Amino acid sequence: MKNKRVVFLYEKLSENPKEDELDVIRQMKHIRKALLNLGYSTDEIPFSIDLDWVIKELKRLKPWVVFNLVETTLGTGQLLHIAPSILTYLKIPFTGSPLNALFITTNKVLSKKQLNLLGIPTSEWYMLDETDKIKPKGKYIVKPICEDGSLGLDENCVFTGNNKSFRNKLKKLDKKIYFIEEFIDGREFNLSVLGGKKGPQVMPPAEILFTDYPDNKPKVVGYNAKWTEDSFEYTHTPRTFRFNKKDQLLVKELQSIALKCWNDFDLKGYVRVDFRLNNDNQPFVLEINGNPCIAPESGFVAATKRAGLKFPEVVKRILEDAFI
Length: 324
Known about the structure:
Blueprint: E1 5-11, H1 19-37, E2 41-47, H2 51-61, E3 65-68, H3 82-89, H4 99-106, H5 108-117, E4 125-127, E5 139-144, E6 158-160, H6 164-170, E7 178-182, E8 188-194, E9 201-202, E10 206-208, H7 223-227, H8 232-235, E11 239-240, H9 248-264, E12 270-277, E13 283-290, H10 299-306, H11 311-321
Parallel strand pairs: 1-2, 1-3
Antiparallel strand pairs: 4-7, 5-6, 5-7, 8-9, 8-10, 8-12, 10-11, 12-13
């Protein structure tokens, strides 16, 4: 295992990178430290649409495995599949979810269609040309189909079906970019799953608490809640791993669904499944996040710590899963 080269692949930063872009660099530094502790050498390639150059660099460096940290290409999640496509074409092992699984889970509409086919509960959704299906008393949220990191998502995206003014705004949006989802105004949970030689392991579940939220403020874990540290949303959405006895059956159900998502979507490496509960405490899968953030302060890393795992062990298992 010693002296094998791990090459980081990550999107080339823009001229004025935002926090979500810089987060990839933080992840890379954190992972590199773990890799060096494990005895690996590392290198990096900033991924861009200049595919000839990327392919030449990959062939020159001859990586034992690529640590795939590409979250967007040309600043959009719509092209996220290009990096794993190149790696698959070159037959280079890479970390995280494989091409097909990443392509489906990145596209929220495709993911929801697959969830329905698999019998996994997910909230109702509509395309922008299906507004006639919206119920006047229903509550909905407009989301980008492919963007990660809650880009373009905040409380202003939540609306009621009888809001004619908002529905008129929907007509101006690109139906290839956005879709409408039923807004489930209940408890929110994150379930992290880690692969490895012994198979997937579901980490302790985390609940996102919306503390001191005004009644008229939609509970949304949007861009501010994830990246803007001085915002109300960031400081009032803490994570907890503490549950009382009456939640034990719910916890087991969430863990079971998360594991089913892993198996049925052919996921690998590391994954986070996000849930919301409706008024009847029924869990619905909101999103399946292949290759979630594993920066030191991330929810995934917090869950692995809760499970008693040190970060080098997490990285080791992610690498192992690249060859299974």
